[in-house]
Design a protein that fits this description.
binds pyridoxal-5'-phosphate, 436 residues, alpha/beta, Aspartate Aminotransferase, domain 1, 2 domains
Amino acid sequence: MSEDFSKRVVDLDKQYVWHPYTEMSHYREHVDPLVIVEAAGSRLIGADGRSYIDANASWWTSVVGHNHPRLVSALRRQSETLCHAALGGIAHSPASELAEALCGVAPDGLSHVFYSDNGSTSIEVAMKLALQYWAQNGRTERTRFVALEEGYHGDTIGTTALGGVEVFRRPFSAVLLDCLYVPPAREASQLPSCLEALESVIERNADTIAGVVFESMVQGAAGMRIYDPAMLRAARELCDRHDIFLICDEVFTGYGRTGPMWACDHAGIAPDLMCVSKAFTGGVMPMAATLATDRIFDGFIGEADRAFYYGHTFCGNPLGAAVALEVLAIFEDEHILERAKPKAERIAQAFEQMRALPGVESTRSLGMIGALDLKGDSGYLAELGWRVYSEAQRRGVYLRPIGNVVYVVPSLNIPEEDLSELLSVVRDSVKSAAAR
Ligand SMILES: Cc1ncc(COP(=O)(O)O)c(C=O)c1O
């Protein structure tokens, strides 16, 4: 691509496009964005002709690689017959087949699928299902949710209330739903007190709690923070004891990101409601699903006013559904989970070794996630990670940080040689940034 092409893209971008999570005057003056024209496998291709390993799998979505030929074909095939039809009074094969396939691989007891468009809406659906269920099944006082401190579940007003990333919730704090927060046990030593806090919050407030909402195992936006699966088991047990719904947010962790298909499998539990998005369509189409048990589904049966009056225009979109169905087929045919295991071990080893690097405070890994904290300021607005980002970009890797957290969440099927290159670039970039 010519330099004129890139210049035009960036000029128009800076004039018109309002970027997410971005202070725009800094962006306009100081950021030289990557102009991406193609993507294939684990790589993004720039207008400058260079390829960049996508360490972030494009906000954690492209789980089987960019433009997987089978996903592109599924999309093309579906687009030739039916691009969209409203799910209002209409059934279509992609949505029906996908729902069956999804329930087939879901944790036990999840047997109904409500479609929406993105991760936030999949959680919003779960919250509204829980609230409406209790409102029309004799427990109107159940209007609060329990969530983990520093959690992240999306950017709608409902999901912002659950979230604990301070800078994301601060402007809206006056208008958020009432939630109760408990600390996640990130180290074994914290487990007893965190379990006690969870138990005490639920025991004291059970009558007013509609649901407990946890990101399963890993708090992604908090900086890839892993917590003890005993917290999920305890949440399940307490929800059973007090007849409260457990909602697992698998938007980031689902589809093998942490090893097993679902991160709640680490705890051997099944939720009452489960939310999936991101990897759901392999990063090809914006789509999400909220899975529910028979009991929740049955709680909406009866008079017309008991229905769930909620839906988005693109609910069950055939293009997204056809692609999502193909993602599940690829997982099976290409043994995606099995083949990711040795790669996950390499990530674990590489991050363990990076602990000794100057400038590194701590490291952690789980499945196809590796993360390290740089020494210095912490929090979402910390700038240290951006130094590593520029070093990595020079070396051909897109390594977007979260504050001072540098992390990799590559495609699960990243080729061995790309993974080697990625891990050595992370190492070299951290070293160079620390030496600056
Ligand atoms: C755990 C979790 N839940 C929900 C969301 C929201 O998803 P979306 O950005 O598609 O609305 C995210 C996004 O990063 C997430 O990580």
